[in-house]
Amino acid sequence: MTVVGPFGLSVRDQVLDTDIRAGLADVEEGLLEATKSDVPFITEAAQHLVRAGGKRFRPLLVLLAAQFGDPHAPGVVPSAVVVELTHLATLYHDDVMDEADVRRGVSSANARWGNSVAVLTGDFLFARASHILADLGPEAVRIQAEAFERLVTGQILETAGPRDGRDPIEHYLDVIAGKTGSLVAVSCRFGTMMSGADESVVDTLTQYGERIGVAFQLADDVLDIASDTHESGKTPGTDLREGIPTLPVLHVRDQVARAGASVSADDRRLVELLDSDLSDDERHAEALRLLRVHPALEQARRDTVRYADAARAALIPLPECAAKQALVALCDAVVHRAG
């Protein structure tokens, strides 16, 4: 029997599906509890994105990874709450940095309450995540701290841009590994670690998480250009409008640079648009149209597939079971998003 689970994931085991659904319900309850405050306004702001929903990709990975040990061990659900709270906190901060108006189909916190409230709410969520983390032990605190350092480093590197002589595409992939791969890897690590899985399984799934995390972000990059309705709730072309150099745009610039004097008129026009202010609706629409038919978009899709395939390959040493099949299916689901 095939049961459709979270993130459009097809789980071919009803027992696993039931277990994951129950775990995600517990995570949801934990998120609401962790975002409560004695100050009603703080509760409203902190629960703003929790109640807006989301794929819960990171908690899902915690719960699937925990299947390789005791999935009902006491630290599993709290660690899933920790990674999602951390992720949500970064969204509050990202929206301030990007001056975003919409997140997950609702007004962003900064658009609704201003930058100061959004930043402080993100800080509140980090504090609540740390509070839960403290009960999970010093090793969990160290792992989370290292991942958070990588996440922030990735954000700083994105802001600073590649150093002179550095390939912008390689730089960008390093940024994504830090900003996204680090926390997704920790999700898999926490799930296996908290469930008491063997150390070899912990290492294997941590590697899987890093790779699927990068693939997940690259799929988002493709969707930002290719999709008419972006499943993250963001308006299509949001990154493009904000001048964020995602992978398709970097491939365009690379291909144009390689073409030299033989660059086409359309490519010349596209680069001209990318260098301009794309807050203008007409220029933005023209840039989107040219990007959607450009070979660079297909190259970005191939990169997404490459990372998803690498994640799938990392699973080879694991014993055959329903959880492994679900993790393999997740690689396919990520690629399908970019298809």
From TrEMBL:
InterPro entries: Isoprenoid_synthase_dom_sf (IPR008949), Polyprenyl_synt (IPR000092), Polyprenyl_synt_CS (IPR033749). Its cofactor is Mg(2+). Coiled coil: none annotated. It holds the Pfam family polyprenyl_synt. Keywords: Magnesium, Metal-binding, Transferase. Belongs to the FPP/GGPP synthase family. This is Polyprenyl synthetase family protein.
